[in-house]
Give the backbone structure.
Amino acid sequence: MTLPAKGEWSARALPGATFALHVTPRARQTSLTETPDGTIKATTPTAPEDGKATAAIAELLAHALGVAKSRLTLIKGATARDKVFRLD
């Protein structure tokens, strides 16, 4: 499992920052990794039903950034695998 420690990405937690993620729902495990080219890949075992997978990914990203989940706003990709979140 590749989970950043709580607040490990806190240096990126700047108001107005955006985070583009490629999400894989129904994965075996939860993970949040950054590839060498800067892409953030997130996986969750949660099924993409009624926004549950998006909520799980938002919680995972908030954990890595060390911020409250309520500070993240989904600005693109509600039903897509490529999502963009903004930190308020």
The mean pLDDT is 94. The first helix runs from residue 52 to 65. The two ends are 28 Å apart (CA to CA).
